[in-house]
UniProtKB/TrEMBL annotation:
<feature type="domain" description="ELP1 first N-terminal beta-propeller">
    <location>
        <begin position="154"/>
        <end position="290"/>
    </location>
</feature>
<dbReference type="GO" id="GO:0002926">
    <property type="term" value="P:tRNA wobble base 5-methoxycarbonylmethyl-2-thiouridinylation"/>
</dbReference>
<comment type="pathway">
    <text>tRNA modification; 5-methoxycarbonylmethyl-2-thiouridine-tRNA biosynthesis.</text>
</comment>
<feature type="domain" description="ELP1 N-terminal second beta-propeller">
    <location>
        <begin position="329"/>
        <end position="637"/>
    </location>
</feature>
<feature type="domain" description="ELP1 TPR">
    <location>
        <begin position="870"/>
        <end position="1034"/>
    </location>
</feature>
<dbReference type="GO" id="GO:0005829">
    <property type="term" value="C:cytosol"/>
</dbReference>
<dbReference type="InterPro" id="IPR015943">
    <property type="entry name" value="WD40/YVTN_repeat-like_dom_sf"/>
</dbReference>
<dbReference type="InterPro" id="IPR056167">
    <property type="entry name" value="A-sol_ELP1"/>
</dbReference>
<dbReference type="InterPro" id="IPR006849">
    <property type="entry name" value="Elp1"/>
</dbReference>
<dbReference type="GO" id="GO:0033588">
    <property type="term" value="C:elongator holoenzyme complex"/>
</dbReference>
<feature type="domain" description="ELP1 first N-terminal beta-propeller">
    <location>
        <begin position="1"/>
        <end position="152"/>
    </location>
</feature>
<protein>
    <recommendedName>
        <fullName>Elongator complex protein 1</fullName>
    </recommendedName>
</protein>
<dbReference type="Pfam" id="PF23878">
    <property type="entry name" value="TPR_ELP1"/>
</dbReference>
<dbReference type="InterPro" id="IPR056164">
    <property type="entry name" value="Beta-prop_ELP1_1st"/>
</dbReference>
<dbReference type="Pfam" id="PF23925">
    <property type="entry name" value="A-sol_ELP1"/>
</dbReference>
<dbReference type="InterPro" id="IPR056165">
    <property type="entry name" value="Beta-prop_ELP1_2nd"/>
</dbReference>
<dbReference type="GO" id="GO:0005634">
    <property type="term" value="C:nucleus"/>
</dbReference>
Length: 1258
C-alpha cells in the first residue's frame, strides 16, 4: 500500500547539441548522459562536458540522415559502444576521445543490446539475423530470426539462450506489438497487445505462455506504446506512450506512466504528461542502471530531465479515537482509501475509492481534521475531500459506493465528499513546462498547504511554497502561492510534528533544515542540536519523522540504504519500515521482527543495544513486550489510533493485522487507570492476556473499585472467568513487566495471599450488592481460594436447598450444585461434603455423582449408629484427616486411649496428642514415653531424655543423656536419682573416655576426669592429646605434676607440628589445572577452525568451557555415567565422586582439581590455631622449631593468596547447557542431559584477620 513520491526533479535546459537526440546511455562512474544524435555523441551533465563527432570519420553522413540504433556504456573498458544503422559498431574511448570501428555489417543494423553482465552483445541485422559476439567483439554465432521449423509470423515472441540457441517460440498472439522488455529478475517478459476492445500490457514467461496483464487507461486506438522499461530492481514498469491521432495543430501528446504491482494487481502510480509540443516530447527514456528509482529522459529540444522517486505510505496522522486510520493508495485516476478502524480488506480492495478527473500524482491528509484528504492530479488541480455538504465544482468527479458495502453487506465506513477543487496557480518561480512541478505536498491547516516546487534560477535549488485559497473570485477556486522561500539544494522530504507544529526539510545531501512557515516572514534555517552543532545525515532518506526522546526533539529517518538514523547517530542498519504513533516508535527489521519502543523511557543507547541484538539467540524474548516475530519482508502500513491493532503488509501485497503486545498493554494500562474495566476485560479475553493484570496493575485502586468492576462487567460468566484465572503470580513482574514511569503500584499493604484477598473482596461486595444474583460467583470465590473453602460452599448450597428463595435472579440449589460439580471433581466434593458431618448434604452430593448407592449408603448408615465424637473420628479417619480424628477420639473416653495411642504412633502425631491430655495424667506420661522412644529411633536421644526426665522417668532419661553425650544433663539426673559417688565416678570416666574423647571434645572430657573422676593425670593427658597446651599447663602446676612436662608434654609438643604436605599437593594440582585448561582451549580452537568453519554457532561453543568434553577429549569417558539411576541417594553420591575424579584425562578433571584445591585451602586456613603451639614452643625454648613452623605456615598462606586469582579466574562461570556439537554422539548428549556438569566451587575466602604470628620469632 505504497505510492511513488517524486523526491527530486533535475531539469537542465541550456544543453543544445547538434541534431536531435536519438538515444543515450548513463555513464555509471560519473552519472552523466552520453547522448547520440545523427551527428555526434555528446556527454552531458548540467552542461556539455564533451562531444565527439560521428560524421568526421564518415560513420554517419554529414547531411544528418544517419541513425544511431544503440549506445551502451562499458565501464570495464572505459568506452562507449555505438551501433549505427549503416552497420558500423564503434567503440568510443572516454579517456582518449578516440573512435574505433570494431566491426561492420554490410546489411546494416536495426538494434543492439548488451547482456546485463556485459559479457555478450547481440546485433540484429537488415537481413533479419541475430549476431552474437563476446565483449571483445569476437563473433560467436549468427542465426536467423525466422525459423522454418517453427513457422513464419510477425505476432510471435522467440527466446534464445546465451549460446544463441532458440529455446521457445510462443504461439501466434493476435494484436501483439513491437514493445518488448525482459524483467531484470528474469521471470517475465513484458509486451503490449491490442484487443478488439482494449489496449493491454501483457506478460509472458520464457516459454512463451501468457502470465497476467493489465489494461492501459486509454481507448483501443488512442495511443501507441513506444517502449516498455523495467527499472533495475523489477519493481516499476515505465510505459512510454504517444497519441496515435494528432490533436490541434497536428501534434500528438506524449505520456510516461509508472506502474507497480501488489497482490496481483497493477497500479498506475504516476502519470507524466508532456503535452503536444514536439520539442518537449521525450526523445529517449531510460532507467538508471544503479539507482532503481531514478528515471532519465531527454527531450527532442535537448532538455535533460532526471526524476528520483521514493516509496511512501500515505496515511492519516490522527492520534485520537476519531481518526479512521486512513491509508490512500494511488491507482491512476482513482484513490483507493482503506479505513482500518472499521475494516481490514486486502488490496486492491478498499473501504471506498474516489474517482478523480485525471491521474493522481500526490495525496496528503490534513493534520488537524485527519479524516480529510487532498489529491493533486496530473492536470494541476487539487481536490479536497471531507465531511460536509457535497460541492461539485467541475462536474466530472464521481464518488463510488464503498467497496466494503457491496454484496449485501452493510457499510460501516462513510466515504468523504468532495468539498472543493482548487486550480494550482504556478508563478515565475516554477516551471510551467515541466510535469510534476509540485512534487511534495503537506496539508497543515484548513487553508494552508506546504509544497515543494522546482526553481528556474538554478538546477540545484528548490522552492518552498506556502499555498492557500485565493480571495479573487473566479469560475473555479484557485490555490495561490502566498509566499515562497528558495532553498539551496534539492528538498527530498518534509515531515511535520503535530505536537509542536515543526516542519523539517531534508536535502538530497543529508542536510536538515527547519522551515519556519508560521512566522511573519517564512524562512528556512539550519537544524541545530542543543550544543549548536548542525545536524546532517550521511545518506539521503526516503522516510522521516519527528518525535521527542530524552526530553529533546530529535529527527529520525529511514535511509534508502536500509539504515535507520537518529539525529546524526546511526542507530541500526537492519530497519525495513517504521512509524511514530502517540508515545511509541514501531519498526520492522530484516530479522523479521517488529519492535515497539516507548518514547518516554527510550534512550539512544538502549535503542542501539536493542536493535543490535535483534533476532539474537541470547535475548529473553518470552517476556519482552517490545518484540514480536513477524513474517519475512513485512512492512508497517499504519497503526489504528487508540486501539491495539497494527497493520502490516506482506511482500506479495496481502495485509495482516497484529496486536503488538506493547500496544495492547499500553492501551490496557490506560483503560485500567481510567477504571474502564469492561473494555480492558473484553480486550484481554479476546487477546488471551492473563486476567490477573486487572488486579496486578494497581491492586490498591482495584480493591477500592470492586463495585465499579462488578457493575461494568455485569456478567456472572465474566466474573467467574476472572476468578478462575487468579493465581499468586504477580504478572507485572513476570509476564508483563511495567515500563518505567507507569502508574502500576506494588502489592497492597494488607497481609495475606493475593488470591485470598481478591476472592474475599469480591465476595463481600457481591454479598452486599445482591447475593442471589451473584450466587455462582460467590461460590467461585470460595472454591478458588488458596485453601478451597469447599465446606462453606457446600453449606451455602445446602441453605439454598433448605430455604429456597423466590427472587427473580436467584439460582436454585440444583443449579448451584451442578455448577460446583463443574468446578470441583465430584469425588473430591463428596469427600468434602462428608467432612461437614451433614448427612443430608452428603446425600445431596452423592445423588449427583455417578456413585452406586450400594457403595455409600451402608457406610453412611453405619456412621449414623455411632456416638457423635466417635462418628466424627471415623469420618475424619476415612478422609485421612488424622489430626481432626485424634481430636475427636480424645473426647471418646479412656476406653479408646489405646486406639488413640496407636493412631499417634502410626501417624506420628505426638506433639498434637500431648496437647490434648493434662500433664499429670497417665495418658500424658504414656504418650511422652512413646514419643521418647520415637526420638531415640530418630537419633535425637537428648530430646528424648528431656521428655523422660520431665515425666519422672529418671533412669530412662539418664540412659538417653548418656547415649547423646549430654554429660551435663546426665550428671544432673545422676545427682537427682541419686547415684553413689563410686558409680558417679564411673559414669564420669565412661562419658569422658567413650564419648567425649571420641568426639574430640577434649576440654569437656578433662573437666569430667578432673572434677568427677578425680583423675588429674588422665585429664592432663586428654588436654595434651587435644593440643590444649595452656589448659594442660594450668592443671600440671595446679596438681604439682611437673614430671608430666618432661614425660608427656614436651614430646607431644615437638610432635604436634601440623603437616604441610598440602603445600606440595597444592602446587601439583595447580600446575595440572593449567595444563588441562590449555588443552581444552586448544581443542576448542581446533574444533572451531577445522570442523565447523564460518559456523554462526561458533560463539555458542566458545561459551562452553567443556565443548571438548562431548567430542574430543571426553569421548573416552563421557558415557560412563549415562545409565546411573537417580533413585538412590547412595548411587548419586557415588556417581558424583566418580565424575569428579582426579585421574588424568577424565572429562571433568578441571572441576575435580578445583574442588581439591578448595579443600586444601580450607584446611590450611583452619591451621591458624598454630598460634597456641608457637607460644608453647617458645615457652620451652624451642625457638628454632617455632621459627621454622611460623615460616613454613606463612609461606603456605602466601602461596595460596598469590595463586587464588590464577586458579579462580575472573568471569569463570559454569554452564548447565547440554554438551552438543558436530562431534558429539547420542550417548554423550544424553549423558550431558541426565548428569549436568557440577557447579564451580566459589572462590575460597581467607581469614586474614586472625592474628597467629609471634613477633618474637624471626
Amino acid at each position: 500500500m505504497r505510492n511513488l513520491r517524486l523526491l527530486k526533479s533535475l531539469r537542465c535546459l541550456k544543453l543544445q547539441g547538434p541534431g536531435t537526440p536519438q538515444c543515450f546511455t548513463v555513464r555509471t562512474d560519473t552519472g552523466t548522459l552520453l547522448i547520440a544524435s545523427e551527428y555526434s555523441v555528446t556527454e552531458l551533465d548540467t552542461r556539455v562536458v564533451n562531444e565527439v563527432s560521428l560524421t568526421v570519420e564518415r560513420y554517419l553522413p554529414e547531411d544528418g540522415g544517419g541513425t544511431v540504433v544503440g549506445i551502451q556504456d562499458l565501464p570495464d573498458q572505459e568506452s562507449v559502444c555505438v551501433a549505427t544503422a549503416t552497420g558500423d559498431v564503434i567503440l568510443y574511448n572516454l579517456n582518449t576521445n578516440q573512435l574505433e570501428c570494431v566491426g561492420s555489417v554490410d546489411s546494416g543494423l536495426s538494434a543492439m543490446s548488451w547482456s546485463p553482465d556485459q559479457e555478450l552483445v547481440t546485433l540484429t541485422t537488415g537481413q533479419d539475423t541475430i549476431i552474437m559476439m563476446t565483449k571483445n567483439f569476437e563473433p560467436i554465432t549468427e542465426v536467423g530470426i525466422h525459423q522454418d521449423d517453427f513457422g513464419e509470423g510477425a505476432r510471435k515472441v522467440r527466446v534464445w539462450n546465451r549460446e544463441c540457441v532458440l529455446q521457445s517460440t510462443s504461439e501466434t498472439v493476435n494484436g501483439l506489438e513491437q514493445s518488448l522488455c525482459w524483467k531484470p529478475s528474469g521471470s517475465l517478459i513484458a509486451a503490449t497487445q491490442r484487443h478488439p476492445n482494449k489496449h493491454s500490457v501483457v506478460f509472458m514467461e520464457k516459454n512463451g505462455l501468457l502470465h497476467g496483464d493489465f489494461t492501459l487507461p486509454f481507448g483501443k486506438e488512442q495511443v501507441k506504446v513506444k517502449e516498455l522499461l523495467w527499472n533495475s530492481d523489477s519493481t516499476v514498469l515505465a510505459v512510454w506512450l504517444e497519441d496515435m491521432t494528432p490533436g490541434e495543430g497536428g501534434q500528438v501528446n506524449t505520456y510516461i506512466q509508472l506502474w507497480t504491482v501488489g497482490n496481483y494487481h497493477w497500479y498506475l502510480k504516476q502519470n507524466l504528461y508532456f503535452g503536444s509540443n514536439p520539442q518537449r516530447a521525450p526523445a529517449y527514456v531510460s532507467w538508471d542502471p544503479e539507482r532503481p528509482l531514478r528515471l532519465h529522459l531527454v527531450t527532442r529540444g535537448w532538455v535533460s530531465l532526471n526524476y528520483d522517486w521514493g516509496w511512501s505510505t500515505d496515511r492519516s496522522h490522527g492520534e485520537d479515537g476519531h481518526d479512521n486510520a486512513n491509508v490512500a493508495v494511488i491507482d491512476g485516476d482513482k484513490l483507493l482509501v482503506s479505513t482500518f478502524r472499521q475494516c481490514v480488506v486486502p488490496p486492491p480492495m478498499c473501504a471506498y475509492d474516489l474517482q478523480l478527473p485525471a491521474p493522481v500524482n500526490l495525496v496528503t491528509f490534513q493534520r488537524q481534521r485527519t479524516n480529510e484528504l487532498a489529491a493533486l492530479t496530473a492536470d494541476g488541480h487539487i481536490s479536497v475531500y471531507g465531511q460536509g455538504d457535497l460541492v461539485m465544482c467541475s462536474g466530472t468527479e464521481k464518488l463510488s459506493e464503498p467497496a466494503a458495502g457491496l454484496g449485501g453487506f452493510r457499510s460501516v465506513t462513510h466515504a468523504p465528499q468532495l468539498k472543493t477543487t482548487y486550480r494550482y496557480n504556478q508563478d515565475s518561480h516554477s516551471s510551467k513546462e515541466e510535469p510534476l512541478a509540485l512534487r511534495l505536498l503537506l496539508w497543515l491547516r484548513e487553508d494552508v498547504f506546504l509544497g515543494v516546487g522546482a526553481c528556474t534560477d538554478g538546477p540545484s535549488q528548490s522552492n518552498m511554497l506556502i499555498l492557500g485559497p485565493s480571495e479573487a473570485q473566479g469560475p473555479q477556486p484557485t490555490l495561490e502561492i502566498r509566499s515562497h522561500v528558495e532553498v539551496e539544494g534539492h528538498v527530498i522530504s518534509m515531515c511535520h510534528s503535530s505536537k509542536t507544529g515543526t516542519v523539517a526539510l531534508q536535502l538530497e545531501d543529508g542536510q536538515i533544515r527547519k522551515f519556519l512557515w508560521d512566522s511573519l516572514k517564512p524562512s528556512v534555517v539550519e537544524w541545530q542540536d542543543s550544543t549548536g552543532c548542525r545536524i546532517n545525515f550521511p545518506d539521503p532518506c526516503v522516510q522521516t519523522a519527528l518525535f521527542t526522546i530524552e526530553e529533546v526533539r530529535k529527527l529520525s529517518e529511514y535511509c534508502s540504504h536500509r539504515k535507520w538514523q537518529y539525529c546524526y547517530i546511526l542507530v541500526a542498519s537492519n530497519v525495513s519500515s517504521f512509524v511514530v504513533y502517540d508515545d511509541f516508535l514501531l519498526l520492522t527489521t530484516h530479522s523479521h521482527t517488529c519492535r515497539c519502543f516507548r518514547l518516554t523511557t527510550l534512550t539512544v543507547k538502549g535503542l542501539q543495544v536493542a536493535l543490535a541484538a535483534d533476532g539474537g539467540q541470547n535475548q529473553n524474548d518470552q517476556n519482552d513486550e517490545t518484540l514480536r516475530r513477524i513474517e519475512r519482508g513485512s512492512r508497517i502500513v499504519t497503526v489504528v489510533p487508540q486501539d491495539t491493532r497494527l497493520i502490516l503488509q506482506m511482500p506479495r501485497g496481502n495485509l495482516e493485522t497484529i496486536r503488538h503486545r506493547a500496544l495492547v498493554l499500553a492501551q490496557l494500562r490506560k483503560w485500567l487507570d481510567s477504571q474502564r474495566f469492561r473494555e480492558a476485560f473484553e480486550c484481554m479475553r479476546k487477546l488471551r492476556i492473563n486476567l490477573n493484570l486487572i488486579y496486578d496493575h494497581n491492586p490498591k485502586v482495584f480493591l477500592e473499585s470492586v463495585e465499579t468492576f462488578l457493575r461494568q462487567l455485569d456478567s456472572i460468566n465474566h466474573i467467574n472467568l476472572f476468578l478462575t484465572e487468579l493465581k499468586e503470580e504477580d504478572t507485572t513482574t513476570t509476564m508483563y513487566p511495567c515500563p518505567v514511569n507507569t502508574t502500576g503500584q506494588s502489592a497492597p499493604a494488607a497481609c495475606g495471599k493475593k488470591v485470598d484477598i481478591v476472592c474475599d473482596a469480591l465476595r463481600c461486595t457481591m454479598e452486599s450488592m445482591d447475593q442471589h444474583k451473584y450466587c455462582l460467583s460467590i461460590l467461585t470465590s470460595h472454591v478458588k481460594k488458596t485453601v478451597p473453602e469447599l465446606e462453606v460452599a457446600l453449606q451455602k448450597v445446602h441453605e439454598l436447598r433448605v430455604n429456597p428463595t423466590s427472587a427473580a435472579n436467584a439460582v436454585s440449589a440444583e443449579e448451584a450444585l451442578k455448577y460446583l460439580l463443574f468446578l470441583v471433581n465430584v469425588n473430591e466434593l463428596y469427600e468434602h461434603s462428608l467432612g461437614t458431618y451433614d448427612f443430608d448434604l452428603v446425600l445431596m452430593v452423592a445423588e449427583k455423582s455417578q456413585k452406586d448407592p450400594k457403595e455409600y449408603l451402608p457406610f453412611l448408615n453405619m456412621l449414623k449408629t455411632l456416638e457423635p465424637n466417635y462418628q466424627r473420628y471415623s469420618i475424619d479417619k476415612h478422609l485421612k484427616r488424622y489430626r481432626k480424628a485424634l481430636h475427636h477420639l480424645s473426647k471418646c473416653g479412656e476406653e479408646h486411649f489405646t486406639e488413640s495411642l496407636n493412631l499417634v504412633k502410626d501417624q506420628r502425631l505426638y506433639s498434637e496428642a500431648l496437647g490434648l491430655y493434662p500433664t499429670d495424667s497417665p495418658q500424658y506420661k504414656a504418650l511422652s514415653c512413646a514419643y521418647a522412644e520415637y526420638l531415640v529411633e530418630q537419633q535425637q536421644a537428648e530430646q528424648a531424655g528431656l521428655l523422660l526426665w520431665r515425666c519422672g522417668e529418671a533412669t530412662r532419661a539418664l540412659q538417653a543423656f548418656v547415649g547423646s553425650a549430654s554429660w551435663r544433663n546426665a550428671l544432673c539426673v545422676a545427682e537427682q536419682i541419686p547415684l553413689p559417688s563410686d558409680q558417679l565416678a564411673l559414669l564420669a570416666r565412661d562419658l569422658a573416655g567413650t564419648k567425649l574423647i571420641e568426639l574430640r571434645r577434649y576440654t569437656e572430657a578433662a573437666i569430667l576426669l578432673e572434677r568427677y573422676a578425680k583423675d588429674c593425670e588422665e585429664a592432663i593427658s586428654a588436654l595434651i592429646t587435644g593440643a590444649v597446651w595452656e589448659e594442660a599447663l594450668r592443671l600440671v602446676y595446679l596438681y604439682n605434676r611437673q614430671d608430666i612436662i618432661e614425660t608427656n608434654f614436651k614430646p607431644a609438643l615437638l610432635e604436634g607440628k601440623p603437616p604441610f604436605s598440602q603445600k606440595a599437593m597444592f602446587t601439583r594440582h595447580k600446575t595440572r589445572l593449567s595444563v588441562v585448561r590449555e588443552l581444552k582451549e586448544k581443542a576448542r580452537l581446533e574444533l572451531l577452525d577445522e570442523d565447523v568453519p564460518d559456523c554462526p554457532e561458533a560463539e555458542l561453543y566458545s561459551e562452553a568451557s567443556s565443548v571438548m568434553t562431548g567430542s574430543h577429549a571426553g569421548s573416552k569417558y563421557s558415557h560412563s555415567n549415562s545409565r546411573i539411576s537417580s533413585r538412590s541417594s547412595k548411587n548419586r553420591r557415588k556417581a558424583e565422586r566418580k565424575k569428579l575424579s582426579l585421574k588424568e584425562g577424565t572429562p571433568l578433571e578441571d572441576m575435580a582439581l578445583l574442588h581439591a584445591l578448595a579443600e586444601i585451602i580450607h584446611s590450611v586456613d583452619k591451621m591458624r590455631e598454630v598460634h597456641s603451639l608457637l607460644k608453647a614452643l617458645v615457652l620451652f625454648q624451642f625457638d628454632g622449631q617455632a621459627g621454622r613452623l611460623q615460616h613454613a605456615y606463612g609461606e603456605a598462606l602466601q602461596m595460596i593468596e598469590v595463586a587464588l586469582p590464577e586458579v579462580w579466574q575472573e568471569g569463570l562461570q559454569q554452564t548447565q547447557a547440554p554438551i552438543t556439537g558436530p562431534n558429539s554422539t547420542a550417548n554423550s548428549i544424553m549423558a550431558s542431559f541426565q548428569q549436568p556438569r557440577p557447579s564451580t566451587p566459589p572462590t575460597p575466602k581467607m581469614r586474614n584477620g586472625v592474628k597467629w604470628k609471634l613477633s618474637i620469632l624471626k
